[in-house]
Amino acid sequence: MLSPAAAKPPGGALGSLTNAWASNPKQATAVLVGLARDGLAEDALRVLEHMCASRVGVNEVHLGAAVSACSKSSQWQLALNALGRSSTSWHAAPNLISCNALISACGRGGQWKFGVRLLQHMRLLIISPDEISYNAAMSACERGGQWRCALSILSCLPSARVAPSVISCSAAISSCEKGAQWSLALGLLMGMPRFRVAPDRITHSAVISACEKAGQWQLALRILSGSTPDRISFNAAISACEKAGKWRTALSLLCQMPERRVAQSEISYNAAISACESRGRWELGFIVLTSMSRFRLVPDEFSYNSAIFACAKGGQWQWALRVFAGISEVRVACDAITCNAAISACAGGAQWQPALHMLKDIPEMRLSPDKFSYCAALSACEKGHQWQFSLSLLSEMTQTRLSGDELCHGAAISACEKDGRWQVAVSLLHQMPQRSMKPSAIMYNVVSSALETAGVWEASLALLGNMLVQRLIPDALFAGSTAGALRKAVSEESAYDLLVQLLQLWIAQDRPEAQEEGKPEEENGYLPGSSEHVRILGTAPGVIAIFKPTGVTTATAVGQVSQQLVGETAESELCNPAGLFIVSRLDHPTSGVCPFALGVAGSAAACWLQAQFAGRLVRKEYLYLCEGPALGPLGFTGAIASRLLTTDMGLVRGTSQSSRTEVSPLGREAATGYEVVARYCAPRGAAGEISELMLLLVRPLTGRTHQIRVHLASIGRPLVGDLTYGSRGSSLLPACPRLFLHCREITLRDVEGRPFVAEAPLPADLQDILACLQPVQVQESRNGNHQSEQEEQSLAGGSK
């Protein structure tokens, strides 16, 4: 065997070597084989040229070695040229080896069509394709994403009297895997015994990868358990679990790898960390990251990126920065994605100062901030109400020749809206077309909300006119904000006059089927088999109101009503066959009136009702039993206007609670009015001597998440039965089975402009609770009579 130096002779030495090759061609063969092994295509072809020039005979073996060198280096053009010149310049006919090498070269060069065409023309050269020929062609199809062609070639093997091998089946399965055809890949795996071929690790890994890409994690686990897995199989199965959000199973597979004598790799850990990230299990992602060193594995940038994203999704910006700081300790070169992930984590926690510091420090890491870096920092400033820094960041992007997109401008506009800078918000909106950006409906809605809050109705109407000039039809939220500004500054009737005009635009763009869905079909009624369950309270043009009991989600209630309206059973495959649209929701444990639009999303009926809610034109009344020190005598009224901030909790600690709201200056405007309608003594033995139970009639003006519960809890009057914001163990009524919160009345207007009122009496379970309480006897100052328990119960039952 020649040394590498001998395998690559210098140009000046070729002349002396070719003289020796004339008497001993095997030496030339050895040199060409060495060049093929190293993938030195140009050197191999140069050797052939010198051999021809020196009249050293070039045979099929020499040609095959040169073409193999081209294949090894993916030089399909050189390989094709060499084979084309073989019979004319070098007087060497192509053979099976050179044809197979050329097919492989075409596959590696992404030229699957040339590879398949050569396979078809081999018989014209009186060369019978063998297993290697077919496998090389299928591999070329796999690389080109041509799974149909690969399967067609596999089906030709029996007629060509070529027995498929495990390599043949693996190539076909891999082509299906890359083409996202998991069912075909599985079928090929199950059909391998027909060819008397046993699947190997590569075959199983390819099928598991196909299942992973298709989200078939359970099938991937089944195949893994029935095979002798390797690292690739495990990694694919862990990734399948990661994509499906099955973090527990992903971590279990990671732990099983040493038990199955399979070495873990960085890819294994990265997939497991990513699984924790997808479900917000930041603490487990951090543990997996730190445990890599025990197995002598070094985390890479992907490991840190996934861990930082997990912390960000879990709302743990401090831990995200801690992970980011650990990168320098292990000398891992962080990339722009790493920095952007850390800035995004700060944005999620409304930590605008650390976000700006990180943005400033990116050049010190020999990186350049990109558009996503600025967008993340702008998001942090937006959540922190830092409109001035938002404008500075936009200006900085222009100076660094980074083109800001709609997302960046949207964050800056939102920052101005939250800080009451409506003039700046309007200016930013008008600048977008000049910068080749089209404002979205959301941006118009944000600016409209700022104008409504500021009470500048003239500017609101001007913005509406701007939309109409651009032939944009305002959506319900924009219309509601504009109507709200008119309601504040002019009158409620002026707000409705505007909505009536916009209603004509919505009707004009309505689909015919949406208009049909807006016709009421039932006046009232109970759903089949219901007692204190979902029932229809009333209908009017474009609107239907139902009673939603406790323990039923709004989505479930609308599905049941929808099925009743079209006369279908509960087993219908359509969850909402009548096309009702939810315009307002009640929490799962809250009962009472719930209105829906008789039309699909975007229909005239849906927009009409949504706009009324957005413009605060809908009157809502709730009965709310709270506890704490007395608010005042019967008839006492009060108002709460604290801003409310809602945080998404859906991915934190795997809780079922989707969000949590708190009073915060960074929150959105919220207003709640209340009136004391009944007072009850604290039960005997209850904690708090000065506390009592109070039944309030609550009228929320806005509709923030958990608004009533949080507002009243913030003044020390938590809701009875509320384990999230309430007194919990120290409650005066710890045995209350659910939230004592009931929407008793809603007043709005139907699509014909007529008032629509829906009322729902207090449910029996809540009436039973009040019946067990002792009213506080209060001496009235004017007539000297006591407020009777009977009168209080009448109020509680819903009469006005």
Automatic annotation (TrEMBL):
Keywords of the record, alphabetical order, are: Repeat
Q: Which segments constitute the Pseudouridine synthase RsuA/RluA-like domain?
A: 543-714
Q: What single Pfam family name could you report for this chain, choosing any that match? A: PPR_3
Example of a GO biological process term: pseudouridine synthesis
Q: Name one GO molecular function term.
A: RNA binding
Q: Where are the PPR repeats?
A: 95-129, 130-164, 230-264, 265-299, 335-369, 405-439
* Region ranges (Disordered): 780-800
Q: Which SUPFAM superfamilies does the record match to this protein?
A: Pseudouridine synthase
Which PROSITE patterns does this UniProt record tie to the protein? PPR
Name of the protein = Pseudouridine synthase RsuA/RluA-like domain-containing protein
Q: Which classification does the entry list for the species? A: Eukaryota, Sar, Alveolata, Dinophyceae, Suessiales
